[in-house]
Amino acid sequence: MITLNSVSGGKTSSYLAKHYPADYNLFSLVRIEDVRCAPQDKKLVQLVSDKIGMEFIATAESDKTLKVVLDLEQVIGSEIKWLTGKTFEQIIKDKSGYLPNQMTRFCTTEMKIRPIAEFCRNELKEIVLTRLGIRYDEEHRVNYDNTDFKFHNGFSDNGRNKWITEKYRELEYPLVDNKIEHYQIYKWAMSTNIDFPKDSNCVGCFHKPVQQLRKNFDDEPLKMQWFKEQEYKNRKWKKEMKFSDIEKIGLQQDFIFGTGSGCNSGGCTD
Question: What is the pTM of this model?
Fold first, then answer.
C-alpha cells in the first residue's frame, strides 16, 4: 500500500515527515485572492507559484508556513508535493456567501482534504495509507473511520452535480502509536534551523480561542482584516462573537498563545 504523510507546515507534521518516511509527502495550500495579503518576498511568491503550477497571490496561513514547507524538504531529504484547490473566496461563493464555522467546516473539506483525496483517486488510483500528525498527548483527536470522501461524479440530465462517496485511504497515527508527545517534538523542532510559525493553520481559523485570534490581529493584521471583511449580513465565523468585536478586546496576559486550532478533523493538522 502506498504511504502518504500529510504535511501542514507545523512542528508536529514536520516531525512526522522527518521520522516516518513515506512514499509521498503532501501539503494542501489554502489560497486567498487578496493582494494586500501577498508575501513581501517576491522570490517566495514565485517559488510557490512554481510548486502549485499556477499564479499564487496569498494564503490565509502565516507566510512562515510556506517557508517551512520549502525548508522541510531539505531536512527530510525528500520532495513535498504541493496541492491546492479552490480559493477561500471561491468556496464561500459556492456556498452563497455563507461562512464555514465549527458546525460546518467546509473550508477544511474543500481546501485541505479534497485536493489530497482527488490526488489519491485520480493520480495514484488506489487506496493509500495516510499518516496524520496527531500526538500521543492529543489522542482524543484520533479517528480511524474518516476514510471516505464525496467525489464529483459528473452531471445529471438536468445539469445538476452528481456525487459518489468512495473510500480513498486507511489511517495511521505513528506518533500516538509510539507515544510521541509535545515536548519531544518541540525539542526536535528547536534542533533544526526551521523558523516555525508561532501559530499554525489559517490565522483566522474559527477553532482558535478568542484570545489567539485577538493576538493574530496584532501579528497578522492584513490577513485578519480579510477574515473580518468576510463577515457581512450577520454572517460570522465564530458563534460567540464577530471578528470586529474580537479586534477590540484586550489581550489576556496569562493566556498561552500558539496552542493551535483545537480542531479534531485531522485535515488542518499541526
Answer: 0.92
